[in-house]
């Protein structure tokens, strides 16, 4: 293949790409004009003009955002079909564009016409002669990679390059996941284009592209049924904030922004947690038994609330005893969730009190007079407000910090040692952990939201129960309607309670979700379609059967479509062979994907590093890897050593110059995005991530951290794309 031929082909493709970008600017100008026209409609002075303005500006803003996101690598594919079928090449890109004559200029990768770009093979070319991938640097074509799919076709098309996929796999990593829209493989494409309804389950071993396939599926669903998925919203749930930052650019790069990305510590609206409990405590908080503990907690009398009420009216002393109030509370609880009973409190108490009126004068005055007198009596109003206040889930969660209260609600559900560990955890850390968030969510739903005031509930407002600055409508703004007649679930964070639920829920690293986390996520997708991504061999939850039952309950009644990915695109064959051998040696039941890329470089194993030599050995290993690879390097450590190793990194002048230690000081230690090239992570932090090189410090300690430490270490060993070193 001559260099002149390659340059000629690149120049021809550049001419077409330039034409597409010119059309992109025309489309962007049209969108700007639409926005300006919309604003002018708002100045017409009537309501119809305002409605037209909002609609036009919204559509224009969405189109502008889509066009802006598509700039990077806008055109990436070309199909040359059999000449008798279509003599003109078809170009595939991140979005669809038409020319001034309304003819198709660029096909959106999600369109049915583009499916053949991913599905055609040499065995089944589907009338495609040549498939070409354009490698771009922004709007400049820097190379082309061809595949001849129909060798028998009568054509003189040149074939250039060594394969787009291998070129993509060998590039350096940075701190963000990138789209694979130009190199989606056939088995991945089937999962991406699976039916929109029901549940799509994507399984496969490490490096098979499960996460990025699922994200491309979300983009595909938004394209195929935009009204449904933009209106309802798409929720993407991942294991950690580190992971969510890693994937956050994928969907915007595909032109999609109507997506809520939430780590497991951020699923509940308005609450955020990043701290993890130690494994023993996390296992207790994640267990399905905690649902019963939260249910009991939601039904307890508020600590410090009055246990009886006495008042004299006419000739009678009326007494509500502890036993009577307990019976009233149980009766109210049987009618629905606690906060939903607020409108009934006054009437129910008055019913119980009226039954004690025996005196002639009181009976002669009648029930209406009795009610009027009580509802104007400040002592009664103060009692009612204190006995059954509107409760916030965070406030009720705080009750569990009292060991005596915890023992009461945990009796028969949690053992003494489990109660002790929970009490110690909550006493030591006033802030919420990631494992606390599902418990808080459970309380929100058990308590229910506070009803809005309506005309027929005026007696509640007039009673004074809402006095004291309590705005009931502001409480539980994200509360669910799980038990409401509609059966609809919690709405996206940008919505109010009574709006539609999420239309699609995507759960990544699903094998790690605890039963309580499945309950939390399940509430967000009662009427949604789902994409669930995971690999059981990488699970960090010690009781798989319990988690599987909770997952089944979350998606109950939905049709299941299962897809399995079998090719490892991340690891070199040498690295994955080492990781797989470890997994087999420790007894993990692993899915063994086929690694398609070999580097000829075996992992470096240094088993006998003494404690006093560990920092020097780590520094040496990091320096050696950083000198060999152009992208990111991860230092993976036991959780107990993270601060220590971060301090080491801060003191190494070749990697960091300031006390924080996270910012690299030389060009060779900075990614193209300007973010830190070298990062210190725990084993759990590495879930879903990948690095050019990995240094594993004290792998045995990572294995010993929890009951599922072997699975965690297996995950760690499969994060590197090129180089792997273990120390310890």
From TrEMBL:
Keywords from the UniProt entry: ATP-binding, Helicase, Hydrolase, Nucleotide-binding
Protein's organism: Nocardioides conyzicola
Domain annotation UvrD-like helicase ATP-binding: ranges: 183-572
Entry-linked SUPFAM superfamilies: P-loop containing nucleoside triphosphate hydrolases
Ligand binding (ATP): 204-211
UniProt protein name: AAA family ATPase
PROSITE patterns associated with the record: UVRD_HELICASE_ATP_BIND (PS51198)
